[in-house]
From TrEMBL:
<dbReference type="InterPro" id="IPR043595">
    <property type="entry name" value="FaeB/C/D"/>
</dbReference>
<keyword id="KW-0119">Carbohydrate metabolism</keyword>
<keyword id="KW-0378">Hydrolase</keyword>
<keyword id="KW-0858">Xylan degradation</keyword>
<keyword id="KW-0964">Secreted</keyword>
<dbReference type="GO" id="GO:0030600">
    <property type="term" value="F:feruloyl esterase activity"/>
</dbReference>
<dbReference type="GO" id="GO:0045493">
    <property type="term" value="P:xylan catabolic process"/>
</dbReference>
<dbReference type="GO" id="GO:0005576">
    <property type="term" value="C:extracellular region"/>
</dbReference>
<feature type="signal peptide">
    <location>
        <begin position="1"/>
        <end position="24"/>
    </location>
</feature>
<protein>
    <recommendedName>
        <fullName>feruloyl esterase</fullName>
        <ecNumber>3.1.1.73</ecNumber>
    </recommendedName>
</protein>
<dbReference type="InterPro" id="IPR029058">
    <property type="entry name" value="AB_hydrolase_fold"/>
</dbReference>
<keyword id="KW-0732">Signal</keyword>
<keyword id="KW-0624">Polysaccharide degradation</keyword>
């Protein structure tokens, strides 16, 4: 009986320990009455005023731990354009890169506004902006802190890459759409789950730049290199899921024949494939 009692006590401690670990992944804002609303805010970072827009679910539940998704705009874009969306037939992206429409009230979106409509990240100031936003949002809203994600097109993809390089333990996965290394890469030696897509006819940021971003995380994540280099299948995109990656750190690459376009479609389809691919990639970590 004593042995059984000791075993039950040990199991109880293990269960409590696991529960504690799970609870520790929930942000401080869980269970609190939120003050953050779906609107624009301004904060001061390193003496500069920075703007960002919040989008919380219409049926926000302060006891449900949400995904936290950062959506960074392209050069010349703005947070408001990400929120509103732009004409996908003229090279624009769907609102929130199409992710809010797929989230079904499970995600909180942070939409930062860049200095000079871009993400030069001088001295790491845009990564510091990211740090402050995480701190503020999670103090007020209920977030699953192991479910932070970042995505963006062009310069926004570059900024997502910079966050993955500098804050690999703070970001679960990134999705880079037609990106290149424009916002720096401070660090960049740790694994982060990586989704990337690029067009072979990209006239703004050559596909070689997108491949370089991908290959860094192929190495960091311990994946097996693919040879020959994946190519589009006519007018259809080709998705490559890399093998041998460290558990929890997958790499997916989508190549297409298009130009610099966040809303590329496959032949016979009018629906951009980036939103679906990105959401599926992020959702595997739920």
């Amino acid at each position: 009986m004593a042995r059984r009692s000791n075993l039950l006590t040990l199991l109880s401690f293990l269960v409590l320990g696991l529960l504690g670990a799970v609870m520790a992944e929930r942000s401080a804002g869980c269970g609190k009455a939120n003050t953050i609303r779906s609107q624009q805010y301004t904060i001061t970072i390193n003496g500069k005023q920075r703007q960002y827009i919040m989008k919380i679910p219409d049926r926000y539940d302060n006891n449900f731990a949400h995904k936290l998704i950062f959506t960074w705009h392209q050069l010349g874009g703005s947070a408001q354009k990400i929120v509103n969306g732009e004409n996908i037939n003229q090279g624009g992206a769907l609102p929130y890169y199409g992710l809010n429409a797929l989230a079904n009230n499970t995600a909180i979106f942070v939409v930062p506004n860049g200095l000079n409509a871009g993400w030069a990240n001088q001295g790491g100031e845009d990564v510091t902006f990211f740090d402050e936003l995480v701190k503020r949002v999670e103090a007020d809203l209920c977030v699953e802190t192991t479910q932070r994600f970042s995505t963006g097109f062009s310069y926004g993809g570059a900024m997502s890459f910079a966050v993955a390089c500098a804050r690999p333990t703070q970001i679960r996965a990134i999705a880079v759409i037609s990106g290149s290394q424009l916002s720096g890469c401070n660090g960049g030696n740790s694994p982060v789950a990586f989704y990337g897509q690029h067009g072979t006819a990209d006239s703004v940021l050559n596909v070689s730049g997108g491949r370089q971003l991908r290959d860094r995380f192929v190495r960091n994540n311990g994946c097996q290199a693919v040879s020959p280099e994946p190519q589009p299948n006519g007018q259809n995109s080709v998705k490559t899921v890399y093998k041998g990656c460290k558990e929890g750190y997958p790499v997916t690459w989508v190549i297409h024949r298009g130009d610099h376009n966040p809303s590329q479609t496959d032949a016979g389809s009018s629906t951009p494939f980036a939103p679906r691919n990105t959401w599926e990639f992020f959702s595997q970590f739920s």
